[in-house]
Amino acid sequence: MPAGIRAQTTEFGGITVIQNNSENTEASVTLTKAPGSSPYFTLTGGNRGDYGLDFGTGVDTQAGVLIPYVSQLSRDNTAQGDTVGRFFATAATGPNDGLSDYTIALFSAPAGDEVNIDVNFGFFPYSKWIGGNARNAANNGELTELSGSSGLVLNTHFTDLATPGGQYTLSINTLTGNNASQNGILLVTGARNEDNYALSQANANGSFTIYCHDNGVDGATYENDGVGFVYVPTAKVGTEHLTAIGRVNNDASMDVSAKIPGKTTTVTKGATGIWYLQISGESPATGTMLVSPEGGVGNTTDNIVTCGWDQAGSRWVIETRDLPGATPGLQNASAAADDVFSFAFFTAPVLPVVTLTSPAAGSAGAAPAGVTLEATATDADGSVTQVEFLRNGLVIATDATAPYTFQDNNLRAGHHDYQARATDNEGNMATTAVNQVRVTLAPASIPANTALSFDGTNDYVTMGAAPTLNVGQMSDAGFTLECWFNREGAGITSGSGSGGVNGTPLFGKGRGESDGSNVDCNIFFGINAEGRLVADFEAQPATGVTAGDNFPITATHDPVTNNAWHHAAVTYDHATSTWKMYLDGVPAGSITVTANARPRLDSIQHFAIGTALNSTGVTDGAFRGRIDEARVWNYARSASQIVASKDQPVSTAPGLIGRFGLNEGTGTSTTSSTGSHTGTLTNGPLWVEGMPFGAANTLPTVALTAPAAVSSSAVSAPVTLQAAATDADGLVVNVEFLVDGVEVGEDSSSPYSFTWTPPATGQYTLRARALDDLGGSKESDAATLYVMPTANHPAVSLTSPADGGSVTGGTANLQAQVFDPNGDAMTVTFYGRHTVPATPGPDFKIVQIPDTQFYSEGAAGHADTISVQQLIATFGAQTEWVVENRKTRNIAFVSHMGDIVQKGNNGGNNIEWTRASAAMAKLENPITTLLGHGVPFGVAPGNHDISPIGDYDDGSTSFYNQFFGTSRFAKRSYWGGNYGSDNTNNYQLFTASGLDFIAIHFAYDTTPNAAILNWADALLKAHPHRRAIATSHSIIGGGNPASFSAQGRGIYDALKNNPNFFLMLCGHIHAEGRRADVYQGRTVYSVLSDYQGATNGGNGFLRTLTFSPSTNSIKLESYSPTLDRAVNASDSIPSWENTVNLPYNMQTPVMGWLPLGTVSVAAGGHNAALNWTGLEDGKNYEWYAAVSDGSLTSSSAARRFTRAPNAAPTVSLVTPAHQAVFGTPVNIDMTATAADSDGSIQRVEFYRDGTKLGEDTSTPYSHTWSNATVGTHNIVAVAVDNDKAVTMSNIAKITVVVGDEPPVIAITAPTNGTALPAPASITLTATATDAEGPVDKVEFFSGGTLLGVDTQAPFSRNVTNLAPGTYTFTAKVTDSIGQVVTSDPVIVSVFVEATAPSDVSRRSVGLFDPPAWTVVATSPAPYHFNLPGSNDGDVALKIAGAAVPFSGGITLAASWNSPASIAGNVDSYDNLSLPFAGADGNANISVLDNSNNNASDDNPTTSEQTSGVSVAHLPYAAGWTGASVSGAGVVLSGNLPAGVTISKLGEAGIYSIDGLSTAGNLLAVPNGNGGTSGDNVCSVRIQEGRWLVEVRDNGASEQDGDFCFVYIPATTPGVFAAAVSSAGVVSRMNAGLTSFGTLTATPGTDGLDLQFGDGSVINPSTAALFVTADSTRATNALDNLVAWSANGSKFRIFSQDLPQVSGTHQAIDVRILVIPFAPPVSPPANTVTISAPDATAGEHGSDKSLSFTVSRSGSTGAALTVALAAGGTASPEADYTGFSSSLVIPTGQSSASLPLTVLADDIAEGTETVQINIASDANYSLGATAIASASIADNPAQDWSLANISNPDKRSPSADADGDGLSNLLEYFMGTPPEDGNNGGGMSVTTTGSSAVFTFKRALNREDVTGEVEWSTDLVHWFRGGQSNGAVTLDIQVSTQSLPSDDPQVMRGTATTTGGGPLPGKVFFRLSVTE
């Protein structure tokens, strides 16, 4: 049967296996075809458990799938030498030679051993069936290869689920057009030559699940290895010899069944695990039964299925058995409806009978001869449709009617093998045996060039032993064999011996005979069964070479074609031990063998042509065909020498030791033209025309005449391929028909045709190839055939760009050719997507840097075995390792897992961030990384990077964004962007090995943020082709599978629906961990890596992820650059793992197809085109087109192309020059040239030592480095083009040396802002240096006044008796050449403290309210306010009816949002309340309303308004300190301490109060009524040790204006002043009203609430509030309106930002003054006592807590602070924690607790006491119990040491008090005296080969210590019982051997290896005791 037909022929059958012995050789088994088999396959031999098959397609493993099943229920080969007894087995497949043939592999279950047992099988060609083989490159790896039916696509139809392993989904509904699983069955098999088998499960949605199971493993545990499968639909029954199919349930019912008409199929249930199957009229004699296990549910997850024939019952018996028992037991499925097995029965065909009646075998004649061919043919079950006549295997004629005849004329000389082949109406074929005809040359016309024809049976030429033809005679030259041959049939094979080759001999000297003597084979040269050249020799003995060893070679060329001349050559070079093969002058493979290997030089085997002879001349093998020009050379010829001489005869030449031209033309001998070798023709080889040397062969011409160049056909409809072919200088031997490059059929006679049935829909390329008699061949032009579901479907094929080509620019013009069989108009839609490179790129790495917090912190507590400096340097060592290994390890990206630092914002100290930034900056240095923008990296802030720690919602990442903010990344080519206004959440884009990635870094958050997750989801959808990685600090915990954190779960759930999302990385938890989650068949891996809990803060461990696109895997490995090793057991990393491999497909795209556009094609049109725009540089794309005629649609195959990569810019650093030297001071100009051949330069950046100095965006590109620093520096320029490609320039190494630099000076003391009481004396000190030498002098100045000169360092000047005021000091330095430099100024404030008022009762305070002006509260007479008048917006101040002179005191006012104001809708919150002096000099208050809501850039308009206001007048005469100041800074009135001055500074609206203490509180209010001062606001601040007052207009601009202020010393009674921060922190309180309760400040969105104690004494009904904004800490207080109101018993301050006055409270810092209307009554005093309710605890055990309680009697209206002191023998912080020198009893409570926690130590100190005393204080009196005590018990072991060890220095647990080698802790554990060196304990050990027995003592009542026996093999690494050292695991069992009352106890232990093996050769034991 022709190979093209065999490739479309379903075959089936059985193999009956006879075991001859228990060995594993070919002789150990005898294999025969079982009855009921199809006729066309061949058994190719086998050995134990491996049986070879050949289905004749040439590439069986690519042409179809083999499905085998065991056809015996069980077997026992004991009689044939086995020892296992009865066994059960499973079958699998594997390619026999890795390329072409199949092997059936049989393994016993569950032992997994190769066994011999009968087997059935089916071979299902892909042209007829939907099926395939899915395989992996590595055992248990991901399935990455799928060969199968046309249209069957990996990861589309067949999907490896990855997790769980060994489970695959087959979804073919789109291929079958229906619900596949409900309309057919699936037969499955294991597809690796090992003990796996497969099961299938039919799913309701039409898909199938395939399971790969190890036949020795119990339960639903599967193995990720290859499987084969074929879908058998019910519609196929009645075709392909398929008689019946079914899928059988546990109850013997069938889900799916079908049979041919007239047949009955019966399934009945037998005993447990047994079913009976009958098909009427069928048995193993009539066909082949295939049975496939069903699985996946309950019991069937691991059952094997076997089938055998019950002759007595005329039925098949099917058994299912449960794994993995030694004898698997019969078992039913779990439920009645569970599927158990599927079956398919194929009936063997009945072949026609054909006889070739003429010519008779052995007929002869002379050329040109004629032969009459006659044949008879019949068919028992049908009819004969044709008889073909074949000559030498080629069809020469076909006759469709009897009598079948043909006349074959003009035959050339040679052997002609004739056969007849009959085909019946079912397509079955039968072929006769060969009848050979011999045609000789006509004696009168013998040509000059002849050859010999060999009959393939027994013809040959022998030269005898011919010792001079032994090859390899020249020691180093080697040899060459070559000849021309024309193979005309299979011939008979021979071989070169064990370990050699088999093939039909061409010529040579020897064959396999006996090894190690002179009968070894000298050289064998032939053609193997696959049509490839082979050669071999057996070696003579030499160093490293055993006599008789074989050294074969097999060529790699395509199989040779028959009936055509070919040139064959083989060379062997002795010097290099290298074989080389050539076919037709083309290299066809080479190998290098063992050095010194040489052919056997003394071989006495005979030389022969056409056969192989042994040492006595006995033949083996026979060549069928013609041989000419056989040559033997004594050296290895080169390829060029072989080509130069192959096409011409060579009579003589140097090194040619044998040449048989075979040109005699007659007679029975032939002679070599060199040497004296004569050969004898034996058994009648024929003289024939030889190879036509001379003129070059003219190739044949060929044209495919049908089908047309573009055509269509319906699927499964036969297509006739026709061709015309001629040959100008010879004959056309054959025409082959090719479909997509693969031969499907051939014809040897004109008209050349072949009928081919398309196997599936799709686009096919058709060609014809003609072969002439000289071996030349030519292919026709191609025709395109569209195979559609119906004949009316339109079709489309792609024409441009070429598949695998490239395009330039950002646009590709897509072109397609369309065809509609009806000529209709069409629409064409183009689809495209990014794809992966055509060839997988190299491996690359991503590096995880986890939790570097302890390196950044640099705390001594984490420097366990290294210095603090080394600890800090660890972080930099990690990034330095990345830089050093970037190229060699191909590191593409670095991801930091967060916890960059330990202490977040660290109270404003950024030292940790500085260290971390420097470490990560190593990745950015273009000079060391040789990358313009460094190694791409991203950072995810962790919980420790946020302050407060972990508070994402309300915390601050200010330092993170200062050091790792957007400004750091924004112009780096890999930075993608950020979420919101900062870089807390960010992403990067990078590419590695042609794969594009997006890495999103999420900030730590305990609750997922929906907005951020939506942002991330949108990013993945915007970049669907980029493989997505999510990094956050906390995603999973440790272990595998690890648990998600809340954030991890949130990220996974939000992003899992994106096909490109595959990986999440995190740190946070000290452990390694991972998990794999599958969504819609896609796996997302999560990986935890964190080592912070290890020694030295993590020992520098990081994690690398090696991506291998070629193997579709990601390898996880840990590594420490500081230790130069991976994590191991000694590091105590929870759930750590060695190398982990994660399967991940990098050879398929991650995005789906996107429609690019639709174009219309007019009726009759054939072309469609579309521009695809926006293509990215260097990216890979694929596309296809779909065509529709309005009702039917078809799609093309996909094509791929690449956009040509962007040309990187060029850049050259012009200046500074390399090795240039500069002297300071200097500004260095950096210039560069840059260009971009395919775009533009976006910018050029300039770097110094890796730090970016600046950039330029236009040419000429330049930057100036100002004030360059001394040292050696590397300067580079980096160019960035419009596509973000980056190139680094040449490096200029420059040196900056000291030049004529100006001197440097700085005042070091006092510091700027120092405040000192008057009179003050200070010492001014300064440092002054000059690069060129010593300075000349230093001068000190106060303002412009010279204070003194110093010429010697240290430079200083004493200044004494400074009066109150503000002083500005500077220092000037003069160097040796007269350069003068002045230091920065230092401002010092010298102050006086004001005295408290002499009579605080002399103050007037009140509240004024509408209507008119009503005094609603005021001071008692005679200081009460009254008669305020009724002028709208102006309050006239009168005290006891008398006007108040403005200059007589400080007048304060504050806007008060009173109840009456609120009721009158006159909100005071936006008012201005300003005191002013009327025309009469008396005090008034101006109240103005500001317009609101006001514009943000405009002054509010104001209008007078009567609304709530609080007012106070504090007379100077009563001692109140303050003043009224004009806008020019002139004091208008006041009471100020001597020396205090007020001045206006240079800036508008800023006034300095010099010389006044800042220890108290100062409030200021603006003064004015109309004009520029009439609408002002005031704020105060402390700056440089003095008070500053700033006045601003209500439009928020600085403005000079009048104001007054009051200063409240800290000792002022009767009033309360304080500073209150926006966060509610109260400070700088005076003592005035503290006895009435602690002031509590509570910030809120509606204002800042103030409460005194419980609010019962001081509250808005008893006192007035005055407020001034404080801008000391924040400038947002400079321009605010501040008012207040009552909130119950609390004062509420409300502040609004000017000028907008939006009605929204803005939190600011304030200064407050609370003045009661009348002096409050003091509360009663408190009496305090202390007690110890929990007075005992200890260093050992669970009770480590003590508790003291401080109680008070009396008022609880205010908090009370109680001073405490600690005493006793125990010390705070050393022996316990929790002590504080004060304890606050909160407001409203009568007591407070002081809890203490005991600290354990190693000191033997006995019981200690803790004593807490209450210290005396004016705020309370001491009660009867002012002292309380408690006790701390020592650790029992330490008590023991104290009692038994006299020397205090030797009492620690690790010490050895008596020097006996046992620590004190061990002595305590064993109960031995610690000071008696002669009475020690110890441990005795006795070992045998398999166990160790040891004894030791243990004292009673030692519950505080634990003893464990540990073992080691090297005294370095120690392990406990049950632990493994990687090679062995020891179990240790310990028991008590003494009586329970014995003290100490005697303990006995035994150590054995797990599994019972011997102990290691060297093993040590020790007793480890821990507290």
Automatic annotation (TrEMBL):
<feature type="domain" description="PKD/Chitinase">
    <location>
        <begin position="354"/>
        <end position="440"/>
    </location>
</feature>
<dbReference type="Pfam" id="PF13385">
    <property type="entry name" value="Laminin_G_3"/>
</dbReference>
<keyword id="KW-0677">Repeat</keyword>
<dbReference type="InterPro" id="IPR013320">
    <property type="entry name" value="ConA-like_dom_sf"/>
</dbReference>
<keyword id="KW-0732">Signal</keyword>
<feature type="domain" description="PKD/Chitinase">
    <location>
        <begin position="1211"/>
        <end position="1299"/>
    </location>
</feature>
<dbReference type="GO" id="GO:0016020">
    <property type="term" value="C:membrane"/>
</dbReference>
<protein>
    <submittedName>
        <fullName>Uncharacterized protein</fullName>
    </submittedName>
</protein>
<dbReference type="InterPro" id="IPR003644">
    <property type="entry name" value="Calx_beta"/>
</dbReference>
<keyword id="KW-0106">Calcium</keyword>
<dbReference type="InterPro" id="IPR022409">
    <property type="entry name" value="PKD/Chitinase_dom"/>
</dbReference>
<dbReference type="InterPro" id="IPR006558">
    <property type="entry name" value="LamG-like"/>
</dbReference>
<dbReference type="GO" id="GO:0007154">
    <property type="term" value="P:cell communication"/>
</dbReference>
<feature type="domain" description="PKD/Chitinase">
    <location>
        <begin position="703"/>
        <end position="790"/>
    </location>
</feature>
<dbReference type="Pfam" id="PF03160">
    <property type="entry name" value="Calx-beta"/>
</dbReference>
<dbReference type="Pfam" id="PF17957">
    <property type="entry name" value="Big_7"/>
</dbReference>
<dbReference type="InterPro" id="IPR038081">
    <property type="entry name" value="CalX-like_sf"/>
</dbReference>
<dbReference type="InterPro" id="IPR051918">
    <property type="entry name" value="STPP_CPPED1"/>
</dbReference>
<feature type="domain" description="LamG-like jellyroll fold">
    <location>
        <begin position="477"/>
        <end position="640"/>
    </location>
</feature>
<dbReference type="InterPro" id="IPR013783">
    <property type="entry name" value="Ig-like_fold"/>
</dbReference>
<feature type="domain" description="PKD/Chitinase">
    <location>
        <begin position="1306"/>
        <end position="1391"/>
    </location>
</feature>
<feature type="region of interest" description="Disordered">
    <location>
        <begin position="1488"/>
        <end position="1507"/>
    </location>
</feature>
<dbReference type="InterPro" id="IPR029052">
    <property type="entry name" value="Metallo-depent_PP-like"/>
</dbReference>
<feature type="compositionally biased region" description="Low complexity">
    <location>
        <begin position="1489"/>
        <end position="1499"/>
    </location>
</feature>
<keyword id="KW-1015">Disulfide bond</keyword>
